[in-house]
Write a structure and sequence with these properties.
This is Condensin complex subunit. This protein is an all-alpha fold. The chain has 8 helices and no strands. Helix 1 runs parallel beside helix 3 and helix 4 packs antiparallel against helix 6.
Length: 204
């Protein structure tokens, strides 16, 4: 089994032989913020508690992680921040595992490679989603001539700091070892590799 970066996120919902794919997409429509937060905590504990985050490839946790990223725009702002921080932790965790790996067993290599690419893919996708949301929010503020409630100003999350922290995690995951994990014959993976490498460029 291999995790291949999809052309479109929804492509992960399509069953393809030899590829990891999502079995069930959660909507979270009938769940409270507390219940969704509990889901985040469970998947975080499972993935970070496993060797190099390999549990992310298990059906249940892959489904939940994908669903959280897909439904990110619908989540409350605190939950969006929580998900981004979780995904950034996944990247750090799997990077440490990859760099510390001491086996050349083909099956083990494939697992580490898939966990690494999945973690990076989900984090980059989430960051793009957050950036789009913030851009739209800024446009809405300008459209309403800068009017914003006092509570929204006080409660607004410092997304610049959150995103910067996530990008630092991506930057630390760039190395010759991780570079070799991307499939250069798949255009989608090359595109994500470019985004990954760009996180290591302070001028990008």
């Amino acid at each position: 089994m291999e995790f291949l970066v999809p052309l479109h996120a929804a492509d992960l919902e399509l069953a393809k032989a030899g590829r990891y794919h999502v079995q069930s997409v959660l909507t979270f429509e009938d769940e409270t913020d507390a219940e969704i937060s509990a889901r985040v905590k469970r998947v975080e504990d499972q993935v970070l508690g496993s060797d190099a985050g390999l549990e992310l490839l298990q059906e249940e946790w892959l489904d939940v992680t994908y669903s959280l990223v897909k439904k990110l725009p619908m989540l409350s702002e605190p939950l969006r921040m929580r998900v981004v921080e979780m995904l950034a932790a996944f990247v750090s965790n799997v990077t440490e595992g990859v760099l510390a790996r001491r086996t050349d067993d083909a099956d083990d290599v494939a697992l580490y490679r898939s966990a690494f690419k999945a973690s990076v893919y989900f984090l980059i996708t989430a960051l793009i989603s957050v950036s789009s949301l913030q851009l739209q929010m800024d446009k809405d503020v300008l459209k309403h001539k800068g009017k914003k409630s006092q509570s929204s100003v006080l409660n607004r999350i410092n997304w610049g700091k959150v995103v910067e922290g996530a990008i630092q995690k991506l930057s630390r995951s760039v190395s010759p070892t991780t570079f070799s994990m991307w499939n250069m014959n798949v255009p989608e993976e090359v595109s994500h590799l470019e985004l990954h490498l760009r996180s290591d460029d302070p001028h990008s």
